[in-house]
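Problem 3 from the worked examples.
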Amino acid sequence: MKSTRYTTALTLAGALAVGTLAACSSSPDDSAAEDGTVTLKVVALLPGSTDEAVEAFDQQVAEFEEAHPDIDVQPEEYEWKATTFAAQLAGGTLPDVFEIPFTDALGLVENGQLADMDEQFRALPYADKFNPTILEAGTGPDGHVYAIPAKNAYPVALHYNRELFASSGLDPDAPPTTWDEVRTAAKAIADAHPGVAGFATMTQNNTGGWQLTAQTVAHGGRTVEVDDEQVATATLDNDGTVAALELLQQMRWDDNSTGANFLLDWGSINQEFSAGQVGMFTSGSDIYTSMVQTNAIDPAIYGLAPIPLEGADAATLTGGTLAGVPAGVDDAVKDAAIDWIDFFYLDKLVDEDRAVADAETLVANDQPVGTPVLPMFSREQYEQNQEWIADYINVPLDQMAPFTDAMFDLPLVGEPSQKTQEIYALLDPVVQAVLTDEDADVEALLEQANTQAQALLDQG
């Protein structure tokens, strides 16, 4: 067994405009050793992951290398952040296999920053089984696949602390189903537990805009409208966004139920929730796994429910993760990359032996198995996979039942398809203002952000 050593992908100071970046890549001479061994740097775990999570990953690497003795896998700790990713890619500090959200792939393809993986992808025996909508996220205008769906898609959901619910006089088996109920529960938690946020929301590194968009969609609004000719119009000042922000404003200034930390992002809100400092928040349905691996959450406190939906066009925002390879790498790295993507992300979803072997490794190292997500292929394939690993599922499914009972019936909407991260960045300070300035004018803030968003969209 090769020694698995973790390095951390470096974050370069400052963010560069994506449109001006040229991807750094490996040269053909440095991808393979004289004996033909290909060195492949891959995304591993989040910085700060537990020893058990690292050991489980190491075992998976060892299993892969045993089956592929000509590939030397070198894991690197990695956390995707919109504010640093562009600089990492430009500086050549990303692994050979890295992860990106659905929203980013097409822009990277247009800028020539992702390797064309179409030939490697088409060789997968299950290539034609993917949900077309999911596969489209990583497909370029030429019809070639550049980024490969790596993890099942997730809907944004409501995460809640069952222990805080119970100790605040709330029923942990009956989480809120309306936004008014969210507000009531948040106040009950904050009143019963001074210093705890009954409801918190992300506010920075583009995550504030992401979750405001999710809450907008859940209120029946849309932040960007695209016509049949793919002309995009900014609609950040829609009624749904106004309603979502006014609700935050009421919880913050009337109820004092949103806590005191208003600079949260994906990682820090997970940490706060796991530590019992947040009663409820919205995020992707799949984050329980990360909170076990990185935040040592007590499973007993965790609850999962659908995000409340209100309004004629209310829906649940969805997202997902793609695996990409930097443009310019040679075929040896691309071939090794598809082997790793197949092994680590995908084959376990369609092959019983791989599904069981993966689950066994994870359970042996106290890692989560069975966190609910949306199907990568079909509902039938997902349910078959769950049957294969039924004996190994160790997540608290009973506590996730409000979500799992409804997840196949949720009305789903994808994230805005144009200038997504840039518009999320415009909305971050709007969310922060509502939480930090009692006199914040929601409509004026949105009008200004909408003008800026339209200017971005008009750039094409």
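Problem 4, a separate protein:
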Amino acid sequence: MLHRTIKDTSIPALGLGTFQLPDDTAREITAAALSAGYRHIDTAQIYRNEEGVGTAIKNAGIARDQVFLTTKVWREHLSKRDFLPSVEESLRKLKTDHVDLLLIHWPNPSVAIPEYMDQLMEAQRKGYTQHIGVSNHPTALLDQVLATGADIITNQVEYHPLINQTKLYSYLREKGITLTAYSPIAQGKVLGHAILQGIAEKYGKNEVQVSLRWLIQQEGVLAIPRTSKAERLASNIDIFDFELTQEEVSQIDQLKQENTRVVNPSFAPDWDTI
């Protein structure tokens, strides 16, 4: 397993996402993932599966400090009044006294960035989380986030071969901040893609594995593919026995011209344009 070292913390480059997994399913998949060798688990308040994830980690027989655990504060909990109580509730559900990474899930225009970042930093000061970061923040909002002095380690955003995130990725590299890729296979849209298929056949892999390999070969990128099927866990993590050539990387890079975004709720911020 490839790791990224960030702020003296070793983080597995590939983790398990649990978006849209019901609590029971999240418990089963998290348990299966830990058994398969995963040590990076991502959840969120709005997923309503923190209890399942926490139960699986607690029962796994693995030391807590061997599992990198992320959760996210929902946009309706960003005010000073609601922020810390919501984090405390998350910790109770997760059956732990801290997470390794706490993120702002989505920005909320009704709460000023300095207000919610102050609360995020306070959660870190209280020991509720080791590291802090944001999710779904374009560069214009990241400027405001960094102006607060917050030492964020990642921005978790949609990133896969079919979306153009060049501006955001370049910004994060310049600032020394990692990009954590959610929906890293475009919710299945990479399947059947001719270029990805052709490369996959060369290595005896599939389009999903090639897409994930493309991601983790990039400097400063983490990926958290989600699955509800235990048999896919082994396949998703089986990407460390081959390496894409520069020509193949360039071929995949061209797919971003499609600029397909699969997660774009009504409350999304103004995304970066290229």
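Solution to problem 4. The beta strands are 3-6, 9-12, 16-17, 40-42, 68-73, 99-104, 129-135, 152-158, 178-182, 221-223. The mean pLDDT is 97.
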